């Protein structure tokens, strides 16, 4: 039998937890399940990470590659943002895990932090005018609605829709919210 190092055990636990949290969400993933998938034991999971919630927070990070977003003129931002969002499977998994676990205070705080730092703040920075903040927040709500119907509700007609059609139509809707009124 080969003994693993503490760091190797920690990494196997992190990998197992990431997989299970994305697949099942926070509430339906137990420390025992994580330990079993990592070929470890529950006591080691707790020893390495403290609590299931802390392990969740360590493994569930939402990132959006913003380079392709900031390389486009603002007039094309809506469509490009939807295109980038729908093309990234990692975003889907982390988003669902965070939403499913949002009844936990620390997870809700992480979701709020992601909302502010990954979407509202960067979008607001690209906008001009006295209503830039409200437009950025409305844009986040518009995007959140799309993610909800696609990934939480699983609206069959939208899930089956041609991806390019979703990008064009929803991108136009997002663009309308982002555009300053004169």
TrEMBL record:
What the entry lists under SUPFAM superfamilies is as follows: Homeodomain-like, Tetracyclin repressor-like, C-terminal domain
Under the heading InterPro entries, the entry gives: Homeodomain-like_sf, HTH-type_TetR-like_transc_reg, HTH_TetR, Tet_transcr_reg_TetR-rel_C_sf, TetR_C_16
Tell me, what is one Gene Ontology molecular-function annotation carried by this entry? DNA-binding transcription factor activity
User: What keywords sit in the KW lines?
Assistant: DNA-binding, Transcription, Transcription regulation
Keyword Signal present in the record's keywords: the answer is: no
Record carries keyword rRNA-binding: no
Question: What positions does the DNA-binding region cover?
Answer: 30-49
UniProt-listed Pfam families: TetR_C_16 (PF17920), TetR_N (PF00440)
Q: HTH tetR-type domain spans which residues?
A: 7-67
Identify the domain of life. Bacteria
- In Swiss-Prot or TrEMBL terms, this protein is called Putative TetR-family transcriptional regulator
Q: What is the lineage of its organism?
A: Bacteria, Bacillati, Actinomycetota, Actinomycetes, Micromonosporales
């Amino acid at each position: 039998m080969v003994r693993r190092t503490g760091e190797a055990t920690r990494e196997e636990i992190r990998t197992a937890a990431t997989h299970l949290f994305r697949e099942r969400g926070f509430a339906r993933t137990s420390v025992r399940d994580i330990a079993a998938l990592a070929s470890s034991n529950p006591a080691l999971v707790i020893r390495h990470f403290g609590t299931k919630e802390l392990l969740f927070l360590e493994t569930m990070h939402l990132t959006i590659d913003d380079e392709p977003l900031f390389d486009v003129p603002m007039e094309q931002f809506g469509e490009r943002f939807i295109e980038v969002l729908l093309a990234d499977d990692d975003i889907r998994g982390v988003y669902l895990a965070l939403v499913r676990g949002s009844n936990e205070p620390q997870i809700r705080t992480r979701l709020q932090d992601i909302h502010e730092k990954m979407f509202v703040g960067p979008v607001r920075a690209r906008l001009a005018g006295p209503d830039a903040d409200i437009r950025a927040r409305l844009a986040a709500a518009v995007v959140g609605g799309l993610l909800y119907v696609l990934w939480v509700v699983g609206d069959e007609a939208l899930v089956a829709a041609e991806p390019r059609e979703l990008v064009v139509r929803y991108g136009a809707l997002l663009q309308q919210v982002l555009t300053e009124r004169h």
